[in-house]
Target: CMP-N-acetylneuraminate-beta-1,4-galactoside alpha-2,3-sialyltransferase
Amino acid sequence: MPSRTGSSTKKRSEASPGDNGPTRGGHVGLQVCYEDGNFGVHEELAASPLPVPGVGLSLLLCLEAAPFTLGRLSPVELATRYSNFSEGVCKPGYSSALMNAIYPKFSKPAPMFLDDSFRKWAKIREYVPPFGIKGQDNLIKGILAATKEYRLTPALDSLNCRRCIIVGNGGVLANKTLGSKIDEYEVVVRLNSAPVKGFEKDVGSKTTLRITYPEGAIQKLEQYEKDSIFVLAGFKWQDFKWLKYIVYKEKVSASDGFWKSVATRVPREPHEIRILNPYFIQEAAFSFIGLPFNNGLMGRGNIPTLGSVAITMALHNCDEVAVAGFGYDMALPNAPLHYYETIKMAAIKESWTHNIQKEKDFLKKLVKARVINDLTNGI
Model:
């Protein structure tokens, strides 16, 4: 979670690589601060610099020694402390506060994307892809030298409160007419090649980030949205090599060990391309879902799906997190698997890489604790 500092903190932690800077949330009198890794909750009347209609008693959430610690408060109690916010008003620190209640170690700052200090991250330096960047230094350095951008956008980074939605590809999105609701979020994350054009009524028209790996990337150039950021999730060393080809507009080699055909071009300029922090893959797999560690190597059933990885990323970098299009109901074999095609649920086969049941348990836990809001109620 990016470090957020408040005025009541006596001793602040040092900013980490990719830190989001000043406190988001002063507009509603809610501040999040950090001290010695201890979490606390206070209530106090605070004058809001820019009052928000409907917000009376403001909350001060401080990550410091306090009469109440987040570990002693249930998710329901924490959610109640935010209940005075008006409908639709962004609640600063909401998802991370609830996340800390069920995963007390969820406090490590983790920027969305790799920047030129990536080699300082010990957690990812120790492991090969997908859980780290070991052996990829030169490739990543070459990519970052061309992209030169490691954040979202200036407008999004300056927000005092940021709401993010991860749009999954599930058939549960079909005919829900959630498009306008999805577009209300400041950050809209889409996965792999899930199309937008022609499905706007259900999935919205806005795309902030599209996260993918080579085999999942859109191959038809006309299907890419304008003004979105292209984000690589590197699951194997070939993925970083592929991104270097893309960034430098070099010819993609089909013999680089991909398991199916890959995009040979992405209609994005280097400054519109990012590398997802591999820490989210590692944390989702081992800290949250509980997949086999396998000495930090890719193995049977220990790779989290891109959806769970994207949610983990959002929990570290957004104040509120929602999802739509998640969840597969195997009791409905004739239901559509994806919102954009006619393949049925019965087509799902056992996955060698993923543990769908464990992921489902993890996501259900987040929904039950109100850490994430499931708009399509599919989880």
Remarks:
- The first strand starts at residue 32 and ends at 34.
- Confidence is low (pLDDT under 50) at residues 1-71.
- The two ends are 24 Å apart (CA to CA).
